[in-house]
Design goal:
Number of domains: 2
Radius of gyration: 22 Å
CATH superfamily of the largest domain: P-loop containing nucleotide triphosphate hydrolases
Oligomer: single chain
CATH topology of the largest domain: Rossmann fold
Number of strands: 14
Structural class: alpha/beta
Length: 311
């Protein structure tokens, strides 16, 4: 049985399609990343799946339960942990009082274990919490009743890098223990570290569903470098250089080719500084999935051309 099954799901607001004919499935025991830029329709999908709003068209099941049937949806929710994108708390209660209330509703068999990993100051009123502490409190409540399916909207938002890594490790362990995780993100690197498969949504439509290795192969790396002498794209003469731009002695481009070849090519130049990172998610869309009109978007420009276009 699949943990989540979505078929032709659409949600319209005053004629605007926030979700447009979505169809995908999430297998039991996998971490599935729902990836897209802010405003792509990720949160709308989650709110519809959990019954906070009704779909305009289409259907979906959670753990085999039809989300359009209130009785079945309630049965599914007993086995689901949920972390919204912006958790809403009563600011006048302490973190401990909030968790006590949640425990009375759904149980808290894993509460102490989770509080060793995520450490919100339970004795303080939530009004005194930082964004990161609120997020950790939300994570504890999402997992503490030991659910079979976790649905989370931007779960690492506000966490510092150390807690992000704690969360990523914990998520992989939960997957290995048989849990199913569905979470939205706009950060490609986050999805890369923890997900088995990914669905990409753009402007309300599902662009692709594929395994993470395939996504990374297409996405390449974003290269930024500073050279002693200005570097031209022709100086590299490499396959896989996309969207080369240069301003003075600083150049940047997306590289989808063979990395040893890139290093050899750069070795012929006096490199002052070099940074290689995941490409912004918008670039993955632009270069590999096309724009909204179906164009590939694989255009290349120099810094001078870009300046002229901006003018």
């Amino acid at each position: 049985m699949t943990a989540i099954e979505v078929s032709g799901l659409s949600k319209a607001y005053d004629g605007f399609l926030a979700n447009d004919d979505l169809s995908f499935s999430v297998e039991t025991g996998e971490v599935f990343g729902y990836l897209g830029p802010n405003g792509a329709g990720k949160s709308t999908t989650i709110r519809t799946l959990l019954g906070f709003q009704s779909p305009t068209e289409g259907s979906a099941t959670l753990l085999g339960h039809d989300i359009s049937n209130p009785v079945e949806l309630r049965a599914a929710k007993r086995r689901i942990g949920f972390l919204p994108g912006e958790p809403a708390f009563d600011r006048n209660v302490t973190g401990e009082e909030f968790l006590d209330y949640q425990a009375a509703l759904k149980g808290d068999s894993r509460r102490e274990e989770l509080l060793e990993l995520f450490t919100p100051p339970l004795e303080k009123q939530i009004r005194e919490y930082s964004t990161g502490n609120k997020q950790m409190l939300g994570l504890v409540q999402a997992f503490m009743h030991d659910p079979d399916l976790l649905i989370m909207d931007e779960p690492t938002s506000g966490l510092d890098p150390l807690k992000q890594e704690v969360f990523n490790t914990f998520l992989r362990e939960e997957r290995d223990a048989g849990k199913t995780v569905f979470f939205s993100s706009h950060i490609l690197g986050e999805v890369r570290r923890v997900c088995d498969r990914v669905g990409i949504i753009r402007q309300g439509r599902l662009v692709t569903v594929e395994d993470v290795d395939t996504l990374l192969e297409r996405g390449g790396k974003r290269v930024q470098l500073h050279t002693a002498e200005p570097l031209r794209e022709s100086d590299l003469a490499l396959d896989g250089v996309v969207s080369f731009e240069r301003v003075g002695r600083e150049a940047q481009f997306t590289f989808t080719g063979e990395y040893n070849a890139l290093l050899r090519a750069l070795g012929e130049h006096d490199v002052v500084d070099l940074e290689i990172d995941e490409p912004p998610i918008e670039e993955v869309f632009m270069h590999f999935y096309g724009d909204v009109n179906g164009d590939t978007g694989e255009t290349e420009s120099t810094g001078e051309q870009r300046d002229a276009d901006d003018a």
